[in-house]
Amino acid sequence: MIEFGDFYRQIAVGPLSHWLETLPAQIASWQKDARHGQLKQWLNAVEYMPTIVPEHLDLLHSVTTEASPGLSDGQLLGITTHLRALMPWRKGPYHLYGIHIDTEWRSDWKWDRVIPHISPLKGRTILDVGCGSGYHMWRMIGAGAHLAVGIDPTQLFLYQFEAVRKLLGGDQRAHLLPLGIEQLPELKAFDTVFSMGVLYHRRSPLDHLYQLKNQLVSEGELVLETIVIPGDEHQVLVPGDRYAQMRNVYFIPSAKALVNWLEKCGFVDIRIVDSCTTTIEEQRRTDWMTSESLAEFLDPQDHNKTIEGYPAPIRAVIVAKKP
């Protein structure tokens, strides 16, 4: 099993210390109940992944490692085999010692849209809600964050994150916890909270916004990225059984309606800083994610619509502050 003792020791002193009143018991419960059918395969992939301290590490412009001298063909084959045992890879890409993990999402494109509009991350303690494999956390560290904590209950993502961590030399500046936001107490300890690609999966979106607010320090910043629809401040889509083939999509507001929601939850200085249509170049099938992707989820005759006939995904970035 993945161990979390290093993280517990790291937060034992400081604004996150009171989290230790509940967190270890939650993690112990997760370790007891985590019984995915591929768990042994994932554990082996992480256990046998070598810890390598890179000669060159770039987390500012990408997630890229290089070794000097380069790794042998046998080492690269072993690493590639372990990484492929952790497929599908959805968020990335990663460039690890010449191995290119071409993930379903070009998460670097999203990061490039977000980073110019937010407060500088240097020295900040950050929470990334729904962090996936942790790609954006490494970019946060590259931007100077003091500590990046990601939460995501999907078991596979934890093992992907820990495999990448070993290839980054065991870096302890980022940690992934297999929890959902609803399991967090009101920590009020993070300078920046990211929620990217989560809101439309929540049955109660305003509760989600309150949960995010409760993790921020006073004057802390929320970075919210989510699917929106065209329309005025009154427009909200409540899709039927599926949206773009996703089952668990509940509410998709317009960007202006989302601003109203944030105001209702007490956020201030709310700004819509980016909005763009998701393309089949940004989300697609690859050798590292071989099942259906966005191209199969859109109307083949009209990419402005999902296969169900709803407006195709537009993703907006909204930045707000807690008073």
From TrEMBL:
<feature type="binding site">
    <location>
        <position position="196"/>
    </location>
    <ligand>
        <name>carboxy-S-adenosyl-L-methionine</name>
    </ligand>
</feature>
<feature type="binding site">
    <location>
        <begin position="152"/>
        <end position="154"/>
    </location>
    <ligand>
        <name>carboxy-S-adenosyl-L-methionine</name>
    </ligand>
</feature>
<feature type="binding site">
    <location>
        <position position="110"/>
    </location>
    <ligand>
        <name>carboxy-S-adenosyl-L-methionine</name>
    </ligand>
</feature>
<feature type="binding site">
    <location>
        <position position="315"/>
    </location>
    <ligand>
        <name>carboxy-S-adenosyl-L-methionine</name>
    </ligand>
</feature>
<feature type="binding site">
    <location>
        <begin position="181"/>
        <end position="182"/>
    </location>
    <ligand>
        <name>carboxy-S-adenosyl-L-methionine</name>
    </ligand>
</feature>
<dbReference type="InterPro" id="IPR010017">
    <property type="entry name" value="CmoB"/>
</dbReference>
<comment type="similarity">
    <text>Belongs to the class I-like SAM-binding methyltransferase superfamily. CmoB family.</text>
</comment>
<feature type="binding site">
    <location>
        <position position="200"/>
    </location>
    <ligand>
        <name>carboxy-S-adenosyl-L-methionine</name>
    </ligand>
</feature>
<dbReference type="InterPro" id="IPR027555">
    <property type="entry name" value="Mo5U34_MeTrfas-like"/>
</dbReference>
<comment type="function">
    <text>Catalyzes carboxymethyl transfer from carboxy-S-adenosyl-L-methionine (Cx-SAM) to 5-hydroxyuridine (ho5U) to form 5-carboxymethoxyuridine (cmo5U) at position 34 in tRNAs.</text>
</comment>
<protein>
    <recommendedName>
        <fullName>tRNA U34 carboxymethyltransferase</fullName>
        <ecNumber>2.5.1.-</ecNumber>
    </recommendedName>
</protein>
<feature type="binding site">
    <location>
        <position position="91"/>
    </location>
    <ligand>
        <name>carboxy-S-adenosyl-L-methionine</name>
    </ligand>
</feature>
<feature type="binding site">
    <location>
        <position position="105"/>
    </location>
    <ligand>
        <name>carboxy-S-adenosyl-L-methionine</name>
    </ligand>
</feature>
<feature type="binding site">
    <location>
        <position position="130"/>
    </location>
    <ligand>
        <name>carboxy-S-adenosyl-L-methionine</name>
    </ligand>
</feature>
<comment type="subunit">
    <text>Homotetramer.</text>
</comment>
<keyword id="KW-0819">tRNA processing</keyword>
<keyword id="KW-0808">Transferase</keyword>
<dbReference type="Pfam" id="PF08003">
    <property type="entry name" value="Methyltransf_9"/>
</dbReference>
<dbReference type="InterPro" id="IPR029063">
    <property type="entry name" value="SAM-dependent_MTases_sf"/>
</dbReference>
